[in-house]
Amino acid sequence: MGQVRKFDDIETSLAPLRTQGKKVVFTNGCFDLLHVGHVRYLQEAKALGDVLVVGVNSDASVKKLKGPTRPVQIENDRAEILAALGAVDFTVIFTEETPENLIHKVRPDILVKGGDWSIESIVGAPFVMSYGGKVMSLQFVDGKSTTKLIEKAQK
């Protein structure tokens, strides 16, 4: 089972794993209502390396991105649910609009986002590529989204 880490503690948590030569993969998102698209995506991300770190948007940033009725679940719950998944090693809540500062702390070997993101639009891509890291857009699971789940539940 993964662990929820504070923003300021993630570097310390990753240091011993890096000395063991572990490859760190990073992704981020709101993960408001977990669905099969999220699960498949996180499993694919984990398969690219040894350690998967997931940045979780704070409640305030989700509200800015998704609107006043979101998130459905609070940030601590979302982070804990994700950390309980077998594919996830660490979750970290970030409060900025983007995960750029968290990406600088994590310094992932591989930065990934879902297939609906082009490489050029992935936040942190230039930084990760600057030290030889990889940036990838993973497969998108069509028809699976939190917004669609909420719409269906409201009907």
UniProtKB/TrEMBL annotation:
Top-level EC class: transferase
Domain (Cytidyltransferase-like): residue spans on this chain: 26-117
InterPro entries: Archaeal_FAD_synthase, Cyt_trans-like, RfaE_dom_II, Rossmann-like_a/b/a_fold
Domain of life per record: Bacteria
Substrates-to-products reaction catalysed: D-glycero-beta-D-manno-heptose 1-phosphate + ATP + H(+) = ADP-D-glycero-beta-D-manno-heptose + diphosphate
Pfam families, A to Z: CTP_transf_like (PF01467)
Annotated PANTHER family: BIFUNCTIONAL PROTEIN HLDE (PTHR43793:SF2), FAD SYNTHASE (PTHR43793)
Classification via NCBIfam families: cyt_tran_rel (TIGR00125), rfaE_dom_II (TIGR02199)
Protein name per UniProt: D-glycero-beta-D-manno-heptose 1-phosphate adenylyltransferase
Organism: Bdellovibrio bacteriovorus
